[in-house]
Amino acid sequence: MPRESKAAKQARAQKVEERMLAHYGEGECSLDYESDPFRLVCAVVLSAQCTDAAVNKVTPSLFKKYPTCSQLAQAKVTDVEKIIHSLGFFRAKAANLIKLSQMLVSDFAGEVPNDINLLQKLPGVGRKTANVVMCEAFRNPQGIAVDTHVFRIAHRLKFAGPSADTPDKTEKALLNIYPQKDWLFINHQWVHFGREFCRAQRPRCADCIIGDLCPSFDGETPA
Question: DSSP assignment of 142-200, as one string?
């Protein structure tokens, strides 16, 4: 297969986005957070190495007891652990929730900052979490959140090469071919697409909505 030019890859990427938009719209966040940026930060931190469905089972109890960052900042870590104990790495996550709440109170007047670099100063918040918050809470995309779905799909579509072997490198590859206006939607759309079609195991390639745009497509399974 001849090497694909950047212009050709950008054109193919745009066709992929058009199909995604037609099928999923802008996409919806799978985490329940009641349009509160603070609750979204907490939910995304809790979602690491865990399903969104599992997070949604514990956050109602968490936010009922600690509805604001000021209240969570004063919580006992053992009390938070009891609420989120069903989640993986619950001890580290409980500690991070309290610490990030304390930092929001002390450094940001209790408000989640609309700044990707400041967000990453919060305990437990990495670039992926910061990207989700920037797009979902503030509709101010500064990058693309690369989770397991986005990483897998980017590589199957050959939008990221073999050397893009980390989420950060894969994000850079995607930012190089997608215009900023599309950064807002890609994570949500691709998460839904990854669950419906481009699964890690037994992907539904024969039914795929972008099969003709995917270099890995062979009619049955990805190469």
Answer: SS----HHHHHHHHHTTSS-TT--SHHHHHHHHHTTS-HHHHHHHHHHHHHHHHHTS-S
Output the CATH code of domain 37-136: 1.10.340.30
Q: Are 62 and 83 in contact (CB under 8 A)?
A: yes
Does the 6-28+144-213 domain belong in CATH 1.10.1670.10? Answer: yes
Q: Is 46 exposed, middle or buried (0-12, 13-18, 19+ CB in 10 A)?
A: buried
Q: Cβ contacts of residue 200 below 8 Å, gap of 6+?
A: 148, 152, 194
Number of alpha carbons in the 13 Å side-chain half-sphere of residue 212: 3
Q: Quick: pLDDT tens for 118-143.
A: 999 999 999 999 999 999 999 999 99
Average pLDDT of the chain to the nearest whole number = 95
Give catalytic residues, as residue numbers.
128, 147
Q: CA 97, CA 84: separation in Å to the nearest integer?
A: 11
* Predicted pLDDT at 1: 56
Instruction: Report the C-alpha gap between 203 and 199 in whole angstroms.
Output: 4
pLDDT in tens, 76-87: 999 999 999 999
